[in-house]
Backbone:
């Protein structure tokens, strides 16, 4: 059974930083591209970032490019998202996922709230 468990969310002031993590199990993590997605209150699911299986290729939504960094540790079956210079519009539930669509398997998510 695929399991994705996120951690690291919280309340942070604008301009602050958070590091999210996602521990994966139930599939061959090292051979699987991974995604971060988010859902803000009252809005649909939004793709944030993708990392390919070897970690060398990464992709970002335009509004987070230069502020967020996706990475992975295949030895630990763990995915990360370093978020810097956070803005109020980054407030959302962040989930790791096996794809960017609504139908893709994803974890329960971790809440990130950016507020002064």
Residues:
């Amino acid at each position: 059974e695929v399991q994705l468990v996120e951690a690291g969310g919280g309340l942070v002031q604008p301009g602050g930083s958070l590091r999210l993590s996602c521990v994966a199990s139930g599939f061959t993590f090292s051979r699987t591209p991974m995604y971060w997605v988010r859902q803000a209150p009252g809005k649909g699911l939004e793709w944030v970032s993708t990392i390919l299986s070897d970690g060398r290729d990464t992709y970002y939504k335009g509004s987070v490019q230069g502020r967020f960094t996706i990475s992975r540790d295949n030895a630990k079956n763990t995915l990360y998202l370093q978020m810097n210079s956070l803005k109020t519009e980054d407030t959302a539930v962040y989930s790791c996922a096996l794809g960017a669509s609504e139908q893709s398997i994803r974890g329960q998510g971790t809440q990130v709230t950016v507020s002064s």
The chain has a mean pLDDT of 97.
